[in-house]
From TrEMBL:
<dbReference type="InterPro" id="IPR039770">
    <property type="entry name" value="Rpf2"/>
</dbReference>
<protein>
    <recommendedName>
        <fullName>Ribosome production factor 2 homolog</fullName>
    </recommendedName>
</protein>
<dbReference type="Pfam" id="PF04427">
    <property type="entry name" value="Brix"/>
</dbReference>
<keyword id="KW-0539">Nucleus</keyword>
<feature type="region of interest" description="Disordered">
    <location>
        <begin position="282"/>
        <end position="317"/>
    </location>
</feature>
<dbReference type="GO" id="GO:0005730">
    <property type="term" value="C:nucleolus"/>
</dbReference>
<comment type="similarity">
    <text>Belongs to the RPF2 family.</text>
</comment>
<dbReference type="InterPro" id="IPR007109">
    <property type="entry name" value="Brix"/>
</dbReference>
<dbReference type="GO" id="GO:0019843">
    <property type="term" value="F:rRNA binding"/>
</dbReference>
<feature type="domain" description="Brix">
    <location>
        <begin position="28"/>
        <end position="238"/>
    </location>
</feature>
<feature type="compositionally biased region" description="Basic and acidic residues">
    <location>
        <begin position="282"/>
        <end position="302"/>
    </location>
</feature>
Length: 317
């Protein structure tokens, strides 16, 4: 049995509240790890990835011998690091004779491995190998555009999975509104073949277009590389069903005295207070009553005139 520890300090309580499930999740953090052996290409990519995701990534520089994502029992250390750092995505770099310049990209759900995809790095170009105007250099922590070109991202299962993983890796925090002037970078992914993708990082240069929307030019700032798909593992159906469960952000409030019927539709009950009809003055505007009232007034007037004339005769006598 696992021991359930309750927080004893205010700081521990705040940490648990921050890690608790939310209706609207914040940006996913990335865990960057080194394998037993890494090449210069892999080390350079991991370092530049940490730089691109500054503020949203945690990098461990120590080499890990126990992590074998695709092998049974090789995920224990990975899940431990995920729970320790509260990271939902991981990038694991290694280098062997069988799989040179190797990267394993994966996602976690509830600190358990959700899915995995393994790619190899080819034709790698570092940030330092690009020359451009430093004024258009992307700012750290800015939200990027992500562009996927090629039919393979819609037809090939491995490319579909790679598209989902790369989107979660680079998109950052999900927002409703976006200021165009604050978007200064883009990741362009092109499907060259069913098992090869070209990935590059570009800066956005805004120019005048004569309209409200400016004209955008892409300036390659690096890094850029070819990703060759090697192995992949799709999520378990039961775990996928649990992970895809969603909740409404703004649940509808229950409306009182309203019932939805399949035949009659929407029905409602209206509260009417007790009416004391005996004490109420009923207004009747029918024409017949008006005519009777006029005739009664005329009779009263005639009778009053008759009585007045009689009194005058009596007084005259």
């Amino acid at each position: 049995m696992n021991e359930i520890r309750t927080p004893k300090t205010g700081k521990a309580k705040r940490v648990l509240e921050k890690r608790a499930p939310k209706l609207v999740e914040t940006g996913k953090k990335t865990l960057i790890l080194h394998g037993t052996k890494t090449s210069a290409t892999v080390s350079s990519f991991l370092m530049e990835l940490h730089r691109l995701k500054k503020g949203g990534a945690i990098k461990y520089s120590r080499r890990n011998e126990n992590i074998r994502p695709f092998e049974a029992g090789g995920e224990t250390s990975l899940e431990f690091f995920s729970q320790k750092t509260d990271c939902s995505i991981f990038v694991y770099g290694s280098h062997t004779k069988k799989r040179p310049d190797n990267l394993v990209l994966g996602r976690m759900y509830d600190h358990q491995v959700y899915d995995l995809i393994e790619v190899g790095i080819e034709n790698f170009k570092s940030l330092l190998s690009f020359s451009y105007d430093k004024k258009i250099a992307p700012h750290e922590g800015s939200k990027p555009f992500i562009c996927f070109t090629g039919e393979g991202f819609e037809n090939v299962q491995e490319l579909k999975q790679l598209k989902e993983v790369l989107t979660d890796l680079f998109r950052g925090e999900v927002v409703d509104n976006l200021n165009l002037t604050g978007v200064d970078r883009a990741y362009v992914c092109s499907a060259i073949s069913p098992d090869k993708v070209f990935l590059t990082h570009c800066a956005l240069k805004l120019k005048k277009s004569g309209t409200i929307v400016p004209r955008i030019e892409l300036v390659e700032v690096g890094p850029s590389m070819d990703l060759v798909i090697r192995r992949n593992r799709l999520p378990n159906e039961s775990l996928k069903k649990e992970a895809m469960r969603t909740s409404k952000d703004n649940p509808k409030k229950k409306v009182k005295n309203v019932v939805q019927d399949a035949v009659l539709g929407k029905q409602g009950k209206i509260y009417v207070p007790d009416q004391k009809i005996e004490e109420m003055q009923l207004v009747d505007k029918s024409k017949g009553l008006k005519r009777e009232r006029k005739e009664a007034k005329l009779k009263q007037k005639e009778e009053a005139e008759e009585t007045a004339s009689k009194k005058k005769k009596v007084s005259a006598e």
